[in-house]
Amino acid sequence: MRSKPQVCYAPTSGENDGGFGAGLAVSRAIVGEVARGDPSVALILAMHYCQHAIIARAEHTGSGDWPPALAHRLKDASVRGRALLNAAQVEPGLGSPSYGGLPDTIARRHGDGWRLSGHKVYVTGAPLLSWINVLARTDEEVPRPGLVPREAPGVHIHETWDPVGMRATASQDVVFENVSLDADDAVALQPAHLGLQRDPHVIAWYLNLVASVYDGAARAARDWVVSFGKERKPSVLGGAALATVPSVQEGIGQIELRLAASDWLLRSHAEALDANRAPGTLAAVVKHEVIDNSIAAVEAAIDLAGNHGLARRNPLERHHRNVLCSRIHAPNNGLIRINAARAALGV
Length: 347
What we know:
Residues 91-179 form the Acyl-CoA oxidase/dehydrogenase middle domain. By secondary structure, this protein is of the alpha/beta class. It folds into 3 domains: 5-83, no CATH class; 87-194, Butyryl-CoA Dehydrogenase, subunit A, domain 2 (Beta Barrel), CATH 2.40.110; 200-345, Up-down Bundle (Butyryl-CoA Dehydrogenase, subunit A, domain 3), CATH 1.20.140.
């Protein structure tokens, strides 16, 4: 009988590896429920799931990007709940690799393996990770992501993370100083002139799971404001609850409609992707709409709660700070709109 932590750590691993063989629909449902309680924890989990989706995709397509022994080692450790995994891609100079360019993190040949040096920023869950999937380039100008043990000599975490919200993600800087990397731990070799190749299937996982995190935060805000409306009984209403006021009902109705639309988008997209029938551009649309709906829903809740919504003794102001962080995830919604416009205009 499997233990409960397996559901969270490795739902995507196949049954032969001790997992459940689940797809995006199950994974995004788990992330959404966790996010309702703590979106920072949910984001760490979402990034872990995305990395395992990359491994599963490589095995499914037979790309050879992930050595079988390495993939098995990670899946086995995750099933036992002992191996959180995330990527380190963004750099102080480069920014997000989604905008193009090669990383400054460099892997140099050293015997049969590599020595890795560089500086990454916004590594979600950095202090908790067992492994870090590092985007680097070799001194032969061939970029290679490499899997680095978090506790390896030369891996240093710099506590720079100080945002307005999502603070518990601990998305710190990670500096690699001449870190030894086994030859078998270098994955996804490709010529530098091709740039960073991303599988649209895996990108769809990332966009859906990130959106699910902030949808969960918005649902927590919805839960609070509904309870507030039922419990708050201003004297001007003669003992009646705030929830009896038509304008308050309309505001809560607006929140409900936005969250219902987001649920449909997330669930339908995940199910379609698992069935290999999701349009390639749909993931960005889902992320855009769910993020906008999440922010609008929380702001509507603040409008309804007034000063109570901004008081630190109430959780709504925290939900608001958290959901605003949704805007930082690449590609941001502005870029998604530009790409949609260019496709429509043919430019």
